[in-house]
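Example 3.
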Amino acid sequence: MKIKNFLEEKNYLVLIILALSMLSLTFIIRMIQSQPILIGEQAYSNLIQAQSLGPQINEPYVFLISNLGRIIGLYAASIVVALIFCLGSAALLFAFCEKLTNTYEAWIISLIFISSPAFIFMFVFSSAYSLYIFLILLAGYLLSCNKKAKIAAGVILMFLSLQGLILLLLISLILVYYLIKSENKRGYAFLLAIVLFLGVVSNYYIEPEPRILLQDIFTDSVTDFGALLGLGVFNIFLALLGIFSTWKNKKKYGLLHGFVLVLILVMILYKINLSVYLNLIFSFFAAKGLINFVKKKWQLKILKELTVLLVICGLLFSSFSYIKRVSSKYPDQDTIKALKKLNDFEKGIVLSHDSNYPLIKYYTGFSVFEQKDISEQIFQSRDYYKTTQMLNSSNITYILVDNRMKQNLVWNKEEQGLLFLFRNNQTFHKIIDMQAVQVWEFIPLNISIEV
Amino acid sequence: MRKQTKVWIIFAFALFIRLYLCFQTPHFSDGTSYFNQRQIESIKSTGIPIYSDPLSYSGRFYIFLPFFHYLVAFFALILPLGLAVKLVPNILFCALILINYKIAQKITKKHNISLVVALISAFLPVLYKDLNTLSVYSLVVPLTFALLYYFMKITQDKKYILNFLILLIILAASHQLIILPLLSFLVYLFFVWLEGLRYRRIELELITFSCFFILWLIFIIFKNAFLAYGPNLIHQNIPSVLISKYFLEFNLLDSIFTIGIVPFCAGIYVIYRHLLREKNRDIYLIISFAITIFSLIWLRLIRMQIGLVYFSIILTLLSAKAFEQLSVYFNKTKFTKYKKWINLVLILVFIITAFVPSILYAASNVSDSFTQEEIEAFNWIKNNTPQDSVVLATPKEGHLITGIAKRKNVIDENFLLQPDINQIYSDTNSMYTTIFQTEAIRLLNKYEVDYILFSQRAKAQYDINKIQYLGERCFTQRYNKTIIIYSVDCTIKEANEN
């Protein structure tokens, strides 16, 4: 009883502590392994933009990093901003669900949410998704409050509608939900019209929000199949059970069922990864599925207890498996050391895979060669003269090659393309040699042909 | 004679036939049997199977479920290994006769019809196609149907629930095909809903628990494989040129011949009747299995051979209902006075369509086994080559390199979690078929091959009579009987780059 009372009094504190524990696991593992804390090229891309950013409405996340970075440094700001939004999202989801259902259900939904791979992704990869999810939840919560709060929600939704068509779709779904459920239909209809107008018009002038594309819907949206941003298998399974158990109650849950269908259809038809948004609704239904289990009377009590235990183990397994996998993601310590060492050399243009460019720009300030078609030709060509000619005309000074590039990112065989030409150490001088990354300096030879 | 005695007679007869055919040769007919044998030997000597293997592909990790290997290893403690590895799989396959008898009795409640089903189960041609192998399926298939049987019985007595759970755990510890009964149970629930029948709570609870348990176990054990391959794990990283061989397209005539025309026709008739007219939960459960298996075969998500094994047993079980209905029908007609002649005709049909094909398949499988000369060659490698040698052989012979010769191989038939398998398969092909010595030596050096095994099987697989690039300078013939073994004496060195 004491624990129950404590939990009821200190809801938010306990939830935030749990969310923080979940989120910090990846960073703790990386720190133990002496790896850089920020993961993924998007985080470094944000840092580069933040370094040079003026106020830009379509990059609010980077804008916040840029401003906070003036106080605590950009690197720390990148982590802190993501953390604030993720913890805020967890707290808002709890508050919102507590209003819609009850404290017990809100707890289950929030716990499933904070242990989901998509939630961990938002923080670990320092992505703008954390801001969008935070604002969506804030708007949703405010819409269920008093009139002034609803106005604030309207402003937030109008701002979000400028961020791209995907967010416009989500906001429209939220407003349709309130339009149908609420008595003040006129107000919501008016807001929906403004939001749609702003969204459609801004789409012509503002670049869309960052999108992760799907090549294969299973492998790219299920984390247990290798996706970086996706849903866990157990989350999906529980959510399906929850949808099935609430299927008959169309009056209460029909719209949410519809939203799931719309999001999944968009994912399939347009091959855009919406897992981070789908995760919100799936956490809700997964909680419904789990609560359904617990509430039902089973003929065999032991079987029920074992099943609930398996479900919890399964959810945690998906999360910990994901955390372990992302903890070893690029970049690694070798890459950072190599880039810091590259700073000792003269400035020049660096050729590498696109995913390395944000890191190269951040750590060295060197220019990078961004013409993808020519890069591809250089990487795949074994013709010495053709390759050196292309390198010469592109003014490329350095070539950075890491293990990922050798393992299917660029090449999938030994001594394929440019790797074969590196044997010529008169033209390609290896200046940095780490276990995971090498840098070659291209020394153009003056070749003259005498007739 | 007691009713049970007749079933045991059928069991004993089938076991006798199987063992008689099996013991025509001391060796197996496929490479995977030698992999399984090696695991059993490891359990016998160290208590644990080999998961980190320094020999296969010159070093790799395995993922597999070891219960079958532990079971055979247990018997190998009492019996000689050579006897245990032949006896145990055949006893397990014959156990299917008893299980099917019980299931048929549950469905029809008639002893004579159940006996007929038991007899048909004893001589399903498809079960004799891999007679001379040490296969995990010898445990998995009977366990699956035992699971089915106990699922049918759970509403009668709670003790069957415990039996069901124990079998579920054993099956989950034996093979990833545990997913098959899981899918079938889900299809069964769908059927129950479709037919407007009420869900039995205990069935729902068991299926729910089974789903989560199996899902959790599969994702724990095959986590790395799922991360590497995603849902394509179903194809087990088989080289792309071989996938069509392993996951064959469904051929109706071939399937009818393999299954047996009587169970095929009778089973299809029962499916038709119960989908459109009659309602029977037990039959729906079996039909769910049938639909699941057929869908997996059709979509080429399961190997044809193993799919047909399940499908044939399911149709045999369903045919029990057909025989029951036929028997009732005949008793009402004038033909009842010709019952003895009809039974004689049916026995003749059975012998022609089931018994004889079974024996022929078995004989063919036995004749395809590794010969004494082949085994001698592998023993020669074991006794006459350095321990860290790498031997090139065909994928089918790969497990004999590791299992009998105890040497490293370049490739074998266990493809899962092996990176660049298409490249390795292609390189192995090249190492046998290329005409250019430089290219051959480059590849041989790449895989650090010390010996090349050139057998009749390699000749048949690569459609060659000799290895073209072999020359006296770089290759020395070390062994020449049915199999020829060459040593690789050359390496390619890079010219000075400066």
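DSSP finds 21 helices and seven strands in chain B. The mean pLDDT of chain B is 89.
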